[in-house]
Amino acid sequence: MRIAGEDGNDSIVNDAIGVSINGGAGNDLISGNNATIIGGEGNDYLSNDAAQVTIEGGVGNDTISLGSNSSNVVIQYAEGDGNDSIIGFKASDTLRIGDGTGTYSAQTISNDVVVASYGASLTLSGASGVATLNILGTYSGDSNEGSNIYNQVDNTLITGTDNADSISNIGDNVTISVGGGNDTVINSANNVTISGGAGNDVVDNLGDNVLINLF
């Protein structure tokens, strides 16, 4: 079943299974357990307290609240989306940037993890204490100069620049492509692949099951 809001500030509540909700334009309030939720254009408040749900805030500065019973939720973030806030992000959840290869950077600020992408940002409120942060995308540095990249996110890609980068990684199941330049990589995590590029690279590895390929 599909529920579509009209233009305007809609309020939609759903507890049925297999439902797709699109709020449309306007500042919508959507509670969509067991549903696929698209906020649409506007500053929406979207909430979920169930498992196996996909949520896309859409254009506007949205708030997404995941309840204590939610798990395995996919948050989709695309180019053109606004500055969103995600509350209740858990180790079982995934933040998907674009098609899963979109570029992003992340930093911890107090108890939050702030993810920058497409000229905007998402704040994972209180997520600094989450054991595993799953962000599906490409962690990328500044192409105009060497970057200092510190990654604590599991299951992601890290891409350096063609200049001299310093990359530190503590996230498991990560692929690091350093690019050109004389790069330094410090890895303390497991199940990591490190690929070098042009330049004299230095790798200090403390992790297990790590594949290092320096050209």
Task: Give a description of the structure.
The protein is mainly β and about 220 residues long. It contains no helices and 24 strands. The strands form 3 sheets. The protein has a 13-stranded mixed beta sheet, with no helix packed on it. A 7-stranded parallel beta sheet has the order 1-3-5-7-9-11-15, with no helix packed on it. Strands 17-19-21-23 form a 4-stranded parallel beta sheet, with no helix packed on it. A hairpin with a 2-residue loop joins strand 13 (about 110-115) and strand 14. The chain is elongated. The model has no long low-confidence stretch (mean pLDDT about 85).
Ordered list of secondary-structure elements with their pairings:
Elements: E1 2-4, E2 11-14, E3 19-22, E4 29-32, E5 35-38, E6 45-48, E7 54-56, E8 63-66, E9 74-77, E10 84-87, E11 94-97, E12 103-109, E13 112-117, E14 120-125, E15 134-136, E16 138-140, E17 148-151, E18 157-159, E19 166-169, E20 175-177, E21 184-187, E22 192-195, E23 202-205, E24 210-213
Parallel strand pairs: 1-3, 2-4, 3-5, 4-6, 5-7, 6-8, 7-9, 8-10, 9-11, 10-14, 11-15, 12-16, 16-18, 17-19, 18-20, 19-21, 20-22, 21-23, 22-24
Antiparallel strand pairs: 12-13, 13-14
